[in-house]
Amino acid sequence: MAELKIDAVVFDVLGTLVDEPAGLRAGIRALPPSPDAAGTERLLLLWQRHIEREQRRVLDGDRPYVTGDLLDREAAGLVAEAAGVGDPAAVEALARSARRLPPWPDTVAGLARIAGRFPLIGLSNASRTALLGLNAHAGLRWHQALSAEDARTYKPDPAVYRLAVTVAGVPPERLLMVAAHAWDLRGAQALGLRTAYVARPVGDPPTPADRFDLYAEGLADLAGQLELP
After folding, report:
1. Is the CA virtual torsion 114, 69, 101, 125 positive or negative?
2. Is residue 18 helix, strand or coil?
3. What is the rounded CA–CA span in Å between residue 112 and residue 198?
4. Rounded distance between C-alpha atoms, residue 164 and residue 142, angstroms
5. N or C: which end of the chain has fewer CB within 10 A?
């Protein structure tokens, strides 16, 4: 670890620390009537594709910035329409399911272990309001939680990673960005942050061309590589 000198650790949230698909599936299954397993997966894919497409449109300048909350409501509306659900209360409940995502089994203990040595910064594409709900529901421990909403864009825009650099008050190379998404780490890397890939079932695995500083099977493995007790 002598070659990796860091002052703080920055964590992606969605997918890295919480199981986003599991939480959304639970919201979809709560629709009246509840879809079957195949229908749930089809509706989940509809949600995910909408969020990905609209965030990309914002990044490309094809759509003015809107918060993640609005994108979640749009996605919930599309899913409800596809499921034949017209009750506004059910649609709103579905949209809020994006704030009730379960942590991965190693998340809470892993964050506590790493927080014993380093300041922890959460950095998420989720809105400020959604991030508050996510943190409370999943029991996430932070010293500071930052939303891409503060930069009025989405990762991997450099402006989002710059939020963490500004808050930390140290050069980018003194921050370690942790994520289960290679695209997220590439964005952080472009701004000069050090990077750690953590494998998750729902992540975006690195390609052979990626060169991240650390590769971990989970947060316990990451803490071990950081030489933490």
Report:
1. negative
2. strand
3. 16
4. 13
5. C
**Residue 188: CB atoms within 10 Å:** 29
Among 105, 54, 102, 110, smallest CA distance to 78 is for 54
User: What CA–CA distance (Å, rounded) separates 223 from 59?
Assistant: 33
- Biggest alpha carbon–alpha carbon distance for the chain: 58
21 phi-psi bin (left φ>0, alpha ψ -120 to 50, beta other): alpha
In Å, how far from its chain's centre is CA 99?
11
**3-class DSSP assignment, residue 159:** helix
Question: What pTM does this model have?
Answer: 0.95
Q: Which amino acid is located at 172 in the chain?
A: P
Residue 136: φ, ψ to 5°: -70, -45
The rounded distance, in Å, linking the Cα atoms of 187 and 207 is: 14
Q: What are the C-alpha distances in Å from 204 to residues 59, 114, 186? A: 19, 23, 11
Distance CA 22, CA 76 (A): 15
pLDDT of residue 228: 86
Q: Name the nearest CA neighbour of 133 among 186, 69, 185, 71.
A: 69
Which position has the token pair 């930390």?
168
pLDDT per residue, tens digit, the chain (229 aa), is 446 899 999 999 999 999 999 999 999 999 999 999 999 999 999 999 999 999 999 999 999 999 999 999 999 999 999 999 999 999 999 999 999 999 999 999 999 999 999 999 999 999 999 999 999 999 999 999 999 999 999 999 999 999 999 999 999 999 999 999 999 999 999 999 999 999 999 989 999 999 999 999 999 999 999 988 7
